[in-house]
């Protein structure tokens, strides 16, 4: 990069930003003294490999002065969130954790939400949405409250949930308001870890019912108590006190690999543990930045939080002050110590997860090495994308690309394309997809993958390459397709699927169980799934334009049922009228009409 004039850099708190040749941020950092921190980057003997690479790409530097280090930390988190600089340690997993939301309605309902607004009470965060759904299902059996929409509630008629005893029927006033709100309160307590308190309340109510000779009610309360005991077993108590703590555990597992565990304690009990690994060397400043990024997304507001670095608790008054400022809450506390048992629990969890991670990584690395060799790639691919074009009888033509990075699918790299220029022309659609993708890459809006896999044959492969070339971009491509000239021979060890390379006349064939073929098929199948999902969304959004409603006797409601159950009905010839009858619950005559219509259309 051009020579930095250190004398123009202020010795004040703030943020410094390294820029590349396109004036795009590639690294953002914060400092108590910008001048001193920037100077350290150019001190020989202290540069890491990553710093050297970053400085090679950097062409300029700019800085923003702040009033104090707290402001600098929050500004750094904001810039990293918005700019996603290449050399910063990022929260690459863009998911937010699920919460349970209790609405502010007169008769509150309970739903799962990943977004926190000011229109309800939130319990969480939880790590696994499937576990939350399962737990909610069990708790609604014990304390039935509504989960229906406001429109359904206003109809004033009980639904199936009342019949299966998962709702108490407040819409028809089948429960008093006070009893209903007590159910809500008990659910909140259970999810907040206060199961013992709820159990004591139910036991007291059971005794009251027995004294009044209300034996049926007493038996029902006894069953609730037994159900609560089963739920209680699923929660791990780590603290005797009723506290809520977010725990961030960082440990150096191996050179250039750090393990991170997020542990959520609510009511003194662990309600979720999430684990992740970064192929980075982390220092204390990186960890403080990482935690500030997490909270800057406002995934959850902490009451207390603790940061553990290589089994030692780290305290930062700057980070604590930043969180108080961010959430406008002076009660937020960063803890200076925590029980050794919790550190041990975090360490055991991360070590077990690391063993699986590292074994998978070694396997994946070996596979990608062989893939690079087999397809004559200049380097082992880290980021691989797979593209698919899909249409239904010439309509709803869409394109998608999915991303596989660092040994796993990266959902934040998935892209959807509503094809604008053509209908029922796979070659032209593939050209459009890669022309548009190429323009985004050229503008720096998405990265260039190390390898692109095309779902299709030689024609689709050529179209994709031409789309890139016309956008002014070069890339590595292969395509996978079923051999047209061959019939599937189940006795043969050779797969019917073939892989096409740009400079090779004949396709490459594989044994059925070849790990390279299975890997490419896995990516192709994920792209196909994503394309069908996108098509289904478009079809249901534009249900009034669906060809199905031109069939006599088929309205929007029936068309929606069919397309939800069978989004590929136009192209999947294996779907029968019996399938429609069984899954969509429609009359035989209508089902037969639909099948005849789609068969003639295709």
TrEMBL record:
Cellular-component GO terms for this entry: cytoplasm; excinuclease repair complex
Superkingdom of source: Bacteria
Domain GIY-YIG: 11-89
GO molecular function: DNA binding; excinuclease ABC activity
Alphabetical keyword list: Cytoplasm, DNA damage, DNA excision, DNA repair, Excision nuclease, SOS response
UniProt domain UvrC family homology region profile: residue ranges: 260-464
Alphabetized Gene3D superfamilies for the sequence: 5' to 3' exonuclease, C-terminal subdomain (1.10.150.20), GIY-YIG endonuclease (3.40.1440.10), UVR domain (4.10.860.10), UvrC, RNAse H endonuclease domain (3.30.420.340)
Localization in the cell: Cytoplasm
Boundaries of every UVR domain copy: 196-231
Biological process, per Gene Ontology: nucleotide-excision repair; SOS response
Pfam families hit by this protein: GIY-YIG, UVR, UvrC_RNaseH, UvrC_RNaseH_dom
Stated role: The UvrABC repair system catalyzes the recognition and processing of DNA lesions. UvrC both incises the 5' and 3' sides of the lesion. The N-terminal half is responsible for the 3' incision and the C-terminal half is responsible for the 5' incision.
Assembly behavior: Interacts with UvrB in an incision complex.
Protein family according to the UniProt entry: Belongs to the UvrC family.
Protein name per UniProt: UvrABC system protein C
Lineage, broadest ranks: Bacteria, Pseudomonadati, Deferribacterota, Deferribacteres, Deferribacterales
Gene name tied to this protein: uvrC
């Amino acid at each position: 990069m051009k020579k930095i004039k250190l004398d123009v850099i202020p010795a004040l708190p703030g943020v410094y930003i390294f820029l590349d040749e396109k004036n795009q941020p590639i690294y953002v950092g914060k400092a108590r003294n910008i001048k001193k921190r920037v100077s350290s980057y150019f001190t020989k003997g202290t540069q890491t490999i990553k710093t050297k690479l970053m400085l090679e790409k950097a062409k300029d530097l700019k800085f923003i002065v702040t009033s104090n280090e707290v402001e600098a930390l929050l500004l750094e988190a904001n810039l990293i969130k918005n700019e996603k600089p290449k050399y910063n340690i990022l929260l690459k997993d863009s998911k937010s954790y699920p919460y349970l939301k209790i609405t502010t309605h007169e008769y509150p309902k309970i739903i799962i939400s990943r977004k926190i607004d000011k229109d309800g009470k939130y319990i969480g965060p939880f790590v696994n949405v499937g576990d939350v759904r399962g737990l909610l299902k069990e708790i609604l059996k014990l304390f039935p409250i509504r989960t229906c929409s406001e429109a359904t509630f206003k109809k004033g008629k009980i639904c199936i949930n009342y019949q299966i005893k998962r709702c108490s029927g407040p819409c028809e006033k089948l429960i008093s308001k006070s009893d209903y709100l007590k159910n809500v309160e008990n659910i909140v307590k259970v999810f907040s870890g206060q199961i013992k308190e709820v159990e004591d309340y139910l036991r007291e109510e059971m005794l009251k019912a027995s004294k009044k000779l209300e034996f049926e009610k007493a038996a029902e309360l006894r069953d609730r108590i037994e159900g609560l005991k089963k739920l209680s077993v699923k929660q791990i108590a780590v603290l005797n006190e009723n506290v809520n703590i977010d725990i961030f555990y960082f440990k150096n597992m191996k050179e250039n690999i750090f393990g991170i565990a997020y542990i959520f304690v609510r009511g003194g009990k662990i309600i979720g543990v999430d684990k992740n690994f970064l192929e980075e060397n982390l220092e204390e400043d990186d960890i403080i930045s990482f935690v500030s990024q997490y909270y800057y997304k406002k995934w959850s507001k902490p009451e207390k939080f603790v940061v553990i670095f290589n089994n030692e608790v780290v305290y930062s008054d700057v980070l604590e002050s930043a969180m108080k400022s961010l959430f406008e809450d002076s009660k937020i506390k960063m803890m200076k110590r925590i029980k050794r048992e919790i550190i041990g629990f975090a360490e055991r969890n991360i070590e077990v997860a690391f063993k699986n991670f590292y074994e998978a990584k070694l396997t994946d690395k070996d596979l990608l090495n062989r893939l690079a060799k087999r397809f004559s790639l200049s380097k082992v691919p880290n980021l691989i994308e797979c593209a698919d074009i899909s249409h239904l009888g010439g309509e709803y033509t869409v394109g998608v690309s999915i991303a596989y990075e660092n040994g796993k699918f990266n959902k934040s790299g998935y892209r959807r394309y509503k094809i604008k220029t053509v209908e029922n022309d796979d070659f032209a659609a593939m050209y459009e997809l890669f022309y548009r993708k190429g323009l985004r890459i050229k503008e720096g809006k998405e990265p260039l993958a190390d390898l692109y896999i095309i779902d299709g044959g030689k024609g689709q492969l050529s179209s994709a390459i031409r789309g890139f070339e016309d956008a002014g971009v070069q890339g590595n491509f292969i395509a996978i397709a079923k051999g047209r000239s061959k019939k599937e021979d189940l006795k043969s060890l050779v797969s019917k699927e073939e892989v096409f390379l740009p400079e090779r006349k004949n396709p490459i064939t594989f044994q059925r169980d070849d790990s390279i073929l299975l890997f490419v098929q896995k990516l192709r199948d994920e792209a196909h799934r994503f394309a069908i999902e996108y098509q289904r969304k478009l079809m249901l959004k534009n249900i009034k334009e669906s060809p199905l409603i031109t069939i006599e006797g088929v309205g929007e409601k029936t068309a929606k049922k069919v397309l939800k159950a069978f989004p590929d009905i136009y192209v999947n010839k294996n779907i029968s009228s019996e399938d429609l009858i069984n899954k969509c619950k429609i009359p035989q005559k209508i089902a037969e009409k639909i099948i005849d219509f789609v068969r003639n259309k295709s």
